[in-house]
Amino acid sequence: MLESIEKIRKEAEEFLASAGGTAEQFRLTYLSKKGILNGLFEDFKKVDPAQKRAVGQQLNVLKNALEEIHASLQKETSSDTGKLPSEDLTLPVVPDSQGSLHPLSIVRRRIVEIFSRMGFNAEDGPEIEYDWYNFSALNFAENHPAREMQDTFFVEKADATRDDLLLRTHTSNVQIRLMDRKKPPVRSIMAGRVYRNEAISARAHCQFHQVEGLYVDKNVSFRDLKDTLLHFSKEMFGKDTQIRLRPSYFPFTEPSAEIDVTCFICGGSGCNICKHSGWVEIAGSGMVDPNVLANCGIDPEEYTGFAFGMGIERITMLKYGINDLRLFFENDQRFLKQFVGI
Fold this sequence. Notes:
Elements: H1 2-17, H2 23-31, H3 36-44, H4 52-80, H5 103-117, E1 121-123, E2 128-130, H6 131-134, E3 154-156, E4 165-167, H7 172-181, E5 186-195, E6 207-217, H8 222-237, E7 243-250, E8 253-262, E9 279-288, H9 290-295, E10 304-311, H10 312-320, H11 333-336
Parallel strand pairs: 1-5
Antiparallel strand pairs: 2-4, 3-4, 5-6, 6-10, 7-8, 8-9, 9-10
Helix pairs in contact: 1-4, 2-4, 3-4, 5-10
């Protein structure tokens, strides 16, 4: 057996000297469970007791030598990984790919650009918000349905030291924070992501994006609101676009109105997009309720204002004829590549 051990040691040294041997091949041949070294230890059980001491010592010497050779091979392999592979000129050329803005980013920038030219400043605020800024200061009653768990994602319930903490359900919280720190005149837009506990479908999602506008000053009228939204609609959808205001209700505005625009697909004659009515809804709006102004320390006897809000996803879907809201969140390259160069 001593002769076998010596023979295996020489073979292992030759393996180390060869150019094509790898650490994994060496391990499988000599050090694995089915390798040569393990076989030798099995044979060692049958060695004559008088020779076991001498054979055992040589087996341990062989084991140490094999482990050192394996370590040397591993070191050589790791040092080779830093070398750049030679170029394979037979490989096909990888074409340059041009990226693009997400369609929601395109429309958001366009909306901000239009209102910026009308003198509106862009404002931002936190997505995790206190109840006061998201509901109470906006004239929401204590039992308003929007406060229920099925509509709002609550992060932390109120205690003796703090208000309810929740994911904002609209960007109106930025309006309250703005009026708290800045007195009129105020003319700003607020764009951002909002959250509502809704089932995800082609027409609804638990997260989406809003743009809201606020203008507070002396002698601001409903006519100012109408003219502002008419100008925006013509800039966004085309110069022939008209708007229609329908009476509505929002806790934070009085009077309130839904804003419709003439369908830019059919020109108002009626189609599937507008449900053959000739009009499509784009926003909600109204005059800021006096209670909201008072909650922010603004005298409603001296100042008036208007506010409006629209969903960026809805505007994008109307503008580009997209019929499934979920496409905006799936990052499907086939969908996104359609907006390259826009």
